[in-house]
């Protein structure tokens, strides 16, 4: 793991300050609806990074000082003769577990999940029918185990590497493994499908020992349907891939829903059969690497499926050949490959100039085929290229709402032959028919995701909901003339910039997919008339102000 997160380790050591909150403010806090309070807190956290650190401090303190919700047995599930249904207490416990993960209490979240599963197993009987509701519930727990393992890995990180687990911590991991094995035995006895394959795979990462090279797995035997070949491809160094990547960021949080391993693999195969053979993931996207690696290694055409993963350094580290070697080997082991087609490098602190050494070591590593960057600004990308580092791509945010790459990054890409891999090109799903002619959303409705909340804020600073409606109307008119959608038209606009190599479109594997719609992108291009029509709307937006206030590409992650 290369992910270092200073938030989890932050401890406020500033001087004592007045704690008074005036009565009117307290009254507002006490009476605001929860959704409004969440929205306001999110707005406050956007002002400066220190507020986020203090928020995590206070949230961690609250979690430490509140008693666990598991105070008595048999309260998390309601049992009848044929069903076992989670109660409100279960969902409260699940919310607490997810807060524990986010605040750096990885081991405590594992321990709580173990308690939940033990109670579930003790209440399960052969008379209970595993219907879709129950299977979806088990998939959500499986997804929580995946995220809890990531939280534990972050908890173990130090400046010099990964510390060893204490005996008590090993016992926590062992207890969850034993509980899952008990459930596995019960499921086998009742001839049920094992529900926690993703979680067990992640827990196996704690088995210790050297990172083993991937072993060949049995290839699936059923014949493949003839695969579609996408006409538009891009060369990224030695790699040739379609100009649309499937993005696996959604593996990083249960907020987008959870699915079983079988459901996920089915959707992976649909994407590959449609010609989408390039996948973007990262070392901290839950079990994205492992799930992708196990899928690809079982496919007869696996050598035609490309992996673009990341090494992300968010905190203080000492860069050495051993540090880079360990992280590259872990990425390769996770995706079950001897070499990785594209490793994208993110470095948080530009004041720490070790990023130049780190990039060189990654680029020169024998198991790395090509080096890309992730959220590097123009100045630092130029520094790396001019230092002799071969960079083939830079992954940045680019859309009709976030135009920052046009200002500086585009010229550098042309000069150095670096291609952009763009994310956020659909604004978290806002660039779609469902948002046309509707009022601005409540950001904390049950169907709103973290992506919606992030990109709604971008829309607000770009020009607001009214101008956004004008943009959607324009895209709708153009889309109808090409017999396609708003989303497809928005992606096409991004791809029509020659310095863009590919657009990364998030895929909620096993939950929802838009394979056929995404293929529509390659059936047309926007000619001058349509480009001008779109530009008339963009001329009204605050793109220059956004660039001035937010900074160059990736700056929002470093403020």
TrEMBL record:
Q: Which residues form a coiled coil?
A: none
Superkingdom of the source species:
Eukaryota
Which one of the record's GO molecular function terms can you name? Answer: oxidoreductase activity
Q: List the keywords (alphabetical).
A: Oxidoreductase
**InterPro entries under this entry?**
NAD(P)_OxRdtase_dom_sf, NADP_OxRdtase_dom
* Keyword Oxidoreductase (UniProt): yes
Residue intervals of the NADP-dependent oxidoreductase domain: 244-538
Tell me the PANTHER family matching this sequence.
NADP-DEPENDENT OXIDOREDUCTASE DOMAIN-CONTAINING PROTEIN, PROTEIN TAS
The protein, known as:
NADP-dependent oxidoreductase domain-containing protein
Record the organism.
Answer: Rhynchosporium graminicola
């Amino acid at each position: 793991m290369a992910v270092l997160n200073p938030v989890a380790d932050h401890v406020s050591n500033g001087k004592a300050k007045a704690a008074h909150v005036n009565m009117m403010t307290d009254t507002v806090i006490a009476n605001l609806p929860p959704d409004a309070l969440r929205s306001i807190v999110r707005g406050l956290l956007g002002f400066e990074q220190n507020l986020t650190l203090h928020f995590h401090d206070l949230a961690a303190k609250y979690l430490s000082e509140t008693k666990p919700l598991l105070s008595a047995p048999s309260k998390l599930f309601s049992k009848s003769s044929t069903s076992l249904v989670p109660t409100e207490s279960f969902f409260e416990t699940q919310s607490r577990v997810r807060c524990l993960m986010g605040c750096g209490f990885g081991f405590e979240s594992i321990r709580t999940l173990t308690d939940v599963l033990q109670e579930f197993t003790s209440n399960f009987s052969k008379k209970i029918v595993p219907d879709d509701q129950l299977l979806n519930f088990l998939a959500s727990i499986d997804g929580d185990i995946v995220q809890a393992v990531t939280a534990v890995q972050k908890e173990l990180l130090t400046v010099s590497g990964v510390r060893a687990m204490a005996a008590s911590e090993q016992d926590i991991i062992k207890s969850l493994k034993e509980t899952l094995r008990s459930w596995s035995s019960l499921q086998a006895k009742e001839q049920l499908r094992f529900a926690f394959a993703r979680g067990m795979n992640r827990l196996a990462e704690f088995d210790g020992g050297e990172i083993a090279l991937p072993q060949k797995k049995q290839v699936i035997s059923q014949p493949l349907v003839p695969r579609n070949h996408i006409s538009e491809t891009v060369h990224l160094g030695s790699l040739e891939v379609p100009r649309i990547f499937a993005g696996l960021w959604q593996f990083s949080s249960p907020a987008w829903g959870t699915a079983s391993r079988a459901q996920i693999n089915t959707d992976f195969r649909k994407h590959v059969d449609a010609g989408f053979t390039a996948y973007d993931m990262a070392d901290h996207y839950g079990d994205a690497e492992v799930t992708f690696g196990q899928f690809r290694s079982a496919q007869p055409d696996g050598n035609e499926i490309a992996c673009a993963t990341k090494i992300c350094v968010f905190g203080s580290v000492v860069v050495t050949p051993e540090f880079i070697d360990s992280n590259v080997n872990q990425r390769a082991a996770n995706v079950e490959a001897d070499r990785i087609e594209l490793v994208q490098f993110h470095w948080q602190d530009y004041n720490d100039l070790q990023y130049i050494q780190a990039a060189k070591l990654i680029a020169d590593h024998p198991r790395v085929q090509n080096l890309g960057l992730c959220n590097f600004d123009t100045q630092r990308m130029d520094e790396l290229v001019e230092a002799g580092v071969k960079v083939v791509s830079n992954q940045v945010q680019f859309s009709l709402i976030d135009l920052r790459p046009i200002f500086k990054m585009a010229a550098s890409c042309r000069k150095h032959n670096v291609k952009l891999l763009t994310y956020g090109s659909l604004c978290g799903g806002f660039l779609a028919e469902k948002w046309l002619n509707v009022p601005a959303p409540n950001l904390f409705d049950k169907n709103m995701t973290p992506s919606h909340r992030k990109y709604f804020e971008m829309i607000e600073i770009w020009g607001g909901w009214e101008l956004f409606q004008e943009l959607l109307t324009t895209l709708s008119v153009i889309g109808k003339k090409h017999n396609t959608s708003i989303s497809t038209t928005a992606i096409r606009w991004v791809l029509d910039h020659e310095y863009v190599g590919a657009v990364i479109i998030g895929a909620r594997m096993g939950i929802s997919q838009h394979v056929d719609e995404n293929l529509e992108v390659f059936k047309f291009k926007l000619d001058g008339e349509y480009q001008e029509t779109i530009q008339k709307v963009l001329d009204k937006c605050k793109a220059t102000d956004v660039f001035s206030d937010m900074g160059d590409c990736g700056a929002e992650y470093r403020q």
